[in-house]
């Protein structure tokens, strides 16, 4: 009878993964815009629209008091109309998500230089000191370190694995790195959509506020006539342009910060890709 050799089944080839999904709430994605809209209205209605800021306040008050005669330059923003609270809300939303993304990406970058960290791991792997390489990942404490650590655990497991050949072991390490990467990258890119959206919307809202202000100014000019109407028109245009200035300023901040964050994410992503390449090439060359 012919001798049969044990063959690793598909189930046996699938080793358990050490990568666990990160369960994090993203309540800020819907809570922050709502809070910022309320805050924008409060700033416009009760700070800019405080009766003491005007020579001829509207005592009736209400949702949109018709105050006249602003005493200061910034207070004139109040006369920009009901679009101003929305523009203030977009500005506050940008600031909120800039702070949130800055904290997240700074944490994901970890400590120290990513290229130097990868070189240290390569050195330890070249000396077949996997445990020391894992310790380097614990010290790095960033997304690159997390992915590298997941791959190193599988790397260490594959060293003692006798059921699979080198190619299968390398594929197992590569799969582990890909699974860890799939969990890290969404965390880095989350909420960036708010910055990219506001970059376009803020400018459009500013132009909308300006157009509405111009319509009101020309309507007043047509009804009054004379030199006083020209003065009112100039005043109305000046107030309407506050909408444009606020919209363009908010859009500029959003675009700049979005580009900064995407550049940082690209650097982290490159480090993650280099980590996976380091692990697979090291194992393939040392454990043939």
Automatic annotation (TrEMBL):
Sequence intervals crossing the membrane: 27-47, 80-99, 192-220, 240-261
Principal cellular location given in the protein's record: membrane
Record InterPro entries: ExbB/TolQ_transport, MotA_ExbB_proton_chnl
Pfam families: MotA_ExbB
Ranges for domain MotA/TolQ/ExbB proton channel: 145-270
Membrane topology according to the record: Multi-pass membrane protein
This protein's UniProt keywords: Cell membrane, Membrane, Protein transport, Transmembrane, Transmembrane helix, Transport
Compartments reported by the entry: Cell membrane; Membrane
Domain of life, source organism: Bacteria
Segment forming the signal sequence: none
Family as reported in the entry's similarity comment: Belongs to the exbB/tolQ family.
PANTHER family named among the record's database cross-references: BIOPOLYMER TRANSPORT PROTEIN EXBB, PROTEIN TOLQ
Record protein name field: MotA/TolQ/ExbB proton channel family protein
Source organism of the structure: Niastella soli
């Amino acid at each position: 009878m012919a001798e049969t050799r044990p063959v690793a089944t598909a189930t046996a080839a699938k080793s358990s993964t050490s990568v666990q999904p990160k369960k994090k709430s993203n309540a800020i994605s819907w809570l922050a815009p709502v809070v910022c809209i309320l805050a924008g209205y409060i700033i416009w209605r009760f700070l800019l629209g405080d009766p003491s800021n005007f020579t001829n306040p509207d005592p009736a008050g209400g949702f949109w008091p018709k105050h006249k005669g602003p005493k200061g330059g910034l207070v004139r923003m109040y006369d920009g109309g009901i679009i101003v609270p929305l523009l203030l809300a977009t500005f506050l939303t940008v600031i909120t998500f800039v702070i949130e993304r800055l904290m997240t990406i700074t944490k994901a970058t970890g400590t120290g230089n990513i290229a130097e960290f990868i070189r240290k791991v390569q050195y330890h792997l070249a000396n077949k000191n996997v445990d020391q390489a894992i310790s380097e990942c614990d010290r790095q404490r960033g997304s690159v370190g997390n992915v590298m650590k997941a791959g190193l655990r599988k790397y260490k497991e594959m060293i003692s694995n006798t059921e699979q050949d080198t190619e299968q072991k390398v594929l197992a390490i590569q799969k582990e790195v890909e699974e860890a990467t799939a969990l890290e990258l969404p965390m880095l890119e989350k909420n960036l959509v708010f910055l990219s959206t506001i970059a376009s919307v803020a400018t459009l809202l500013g132009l909308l506020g300006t157009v509405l202000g111009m319509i009101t100014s020309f309507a007043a000019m047509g009804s009054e006539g004379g030199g006083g109407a020209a003065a009112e028109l100039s005043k109305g245009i000046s107030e309407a342009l506050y909408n444009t200035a606020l919209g363009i300023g908010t859009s500029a901040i959003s675009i700049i910060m979005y580009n900064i964050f995407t550049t940082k994410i690209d650097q982290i992503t490159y480090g993650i890709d280099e980590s996976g390449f380091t692990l697979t090439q090291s194992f393939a060359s040392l454990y043939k």
